Every structure is written in structure tokens, then in C-alpha cells.
Amino acid sequence: MATATATATCLLAVWALVAAGLFGTGLARASVAPAAVGKEQREFDYFALALQWPGTICSSTRHCCAVNGCCRSEALHTFTIHGLWPDYDDGTWPSCCRHTSFDMDKLTPLKPTLDKYWPSLYCSTSSTCFSGRGPFWAHETEKHGTCSAPVVHEELQYFTTALDLYYKYNVTEMLATGDILVSNGKEYALSDVIDTIKHAFGGSPQIICKKGSVEELRLCFTKDLKPRDCLTTSAMYKNLSKSKHCPKKISLPTYDPIVLTNSTLEIVPEASDNGLYFFTS
User: Fold this and answer.
1) Residue 36's pLDDT is what?
2) For residue 138, which of 102, 123, 174, 201 is within the disulfide window of CB 3.0 to 4.6 Å?
3) Considering 139, 144, 155, 270, which one is annotated as catalytic?
4) Taking all residues of the chain, what is their mean pLDDT, rounded to a whole number?
5) Annotated catalytic, 63?
6) pTM above the 0.85 mark?
7) pLDDT tens for residues 243-271?
8) Ranges of H-type helices in the chain
9) Is 139 a catalytic residue?
């Protein structure tokens, strides 16, 4: 009886985390308190353009589906966009600032570009702000795009702003200028990676790792979209597990794609170590 009670309590705790948006994969951010969701939050201080390194994320892909960028026949050898995030200087961030309905039709002109440079790297659907599920882009729009005023006011502008910054500040090319290249065997000094980007970009990045490989890299911008330093102090790392910190030597690995031979639009959930796969960042 005690075992059954403990199991039930554990399951309730897991689903409570899911509902709060705290239980997720990879680089999930802790959510704001539920009372703040959809209510007025103070204006953000700066933007973080969050970029993902497919070589690190896709190397763990075990199940394939049409919506997963890791399943393309050609491996991705460049950073892809995770999102454009309004942040606060104290290391916290606004989230889900207003009710909105994601409209894919508004993004029709951008769809090929988003598929190429802003793909989901997972098979699961994403949580949206108000107990819904949807595509990766719906999640980013609702959680982060709705908090981007007064710089960004609507859905299409959110995506075009992020893409413009991505094109203008190409991190893969920046690193290449310092001979920091995609390679499974080569490691680079973390300080060299940071210095190379700082010299080319004009501000210090945030870098998050997984087992010594770059998993995510963030460039930061003022509200007038000029480069600035990202938070590199404890304010940035306070919600980051030790396993996500970068060692002194890091790598940008490649991966072998699992090709989806019979393409389908069906979304296939991918199991994690916990048996569930929720995308919450």
C-alpha cells in the first residue's frame, strides 16, 4: 500500500511539473510562477538570440519523424535558431505575457526559411502557454514573442526580427574566422571560442554544453538590436545544472542523420530517459 501511494505521489509530482512547464528536455527554462502567466509583466531589458548546435542534439536522436530537422538526408552543420528571448538583467525573464492564438497562415511566406534555419530538432509537439500543444514555432511565439513589446508587436515581426539577427550575425562563420570548425575529434579552448565571438560580434556570448560539446549558444542584444554582453555571472547560471556548464575544452561535433525514408506529417513522440518527451524551453 505504501509503495502504491508513493508511486501515485511521484506521478502527480511529474504531471504537476508538466503543467507548470518545468519538466522538459535539453535546455528547458524554469517557467515564471503560474500567477504571472498571461498577466502584465514588466518590460524586458534585453534580447537573447538562442541558437542550437544540431551536432550535439541530433546525436541522441533515436526515433525519426517528418518534423524533426535531425532526420534530413544531409546533416546540419550550422547553428539553427531556438528562439528570440526577452530577458531581464537579473537572470530571470518574462513569459506568456498575453493570450494569443498562433496562426501558421501568417508565416506561410517564411515557411521554407523557417524549415531550414529554425527547425524543431525533436519529434514531440511543444507546450503552449495556456495548456495547449502545438508546433515548435507556436511555443516560441506564445512564450517569448508575446513578451517582446515594445520592440516586436506581432507574430510575423517576431520571426522576421529573429531571422534578420541570425543572418546578420552568423555564428558559424564567426567561429570559422578563428579556425574553430565542425569536427568530431577536435576540441577548442572555451576561452578561444568566447574571444572569437566577442571580437566578431562585439559582445560576450552565453555557451551551454552537454558532455563537453556545445549544445546552445546565445547572442545578446539591446532593445534597439545592437550587440551587448550576455550575462556570464551567477545570474545566468543559477537555474542551470552543473552538467550544462562547459569545460575548458569544448567541441562542435557532427552527427549521422537517421533519414526518414517514408516522409509523413505524423508527429511521433520520442521517449526520453523518463519515458516522456516534452519540449518546454
Assistant:
1) 52
2) 102
3) 144
4) 80
5) no
6) no
7) 578 999 999 999 988 876 444 433 333 33
8) 2-20, 54-57, 111-117, 136-143, 155-168, 171-177, 190-201, 234-237
9) no
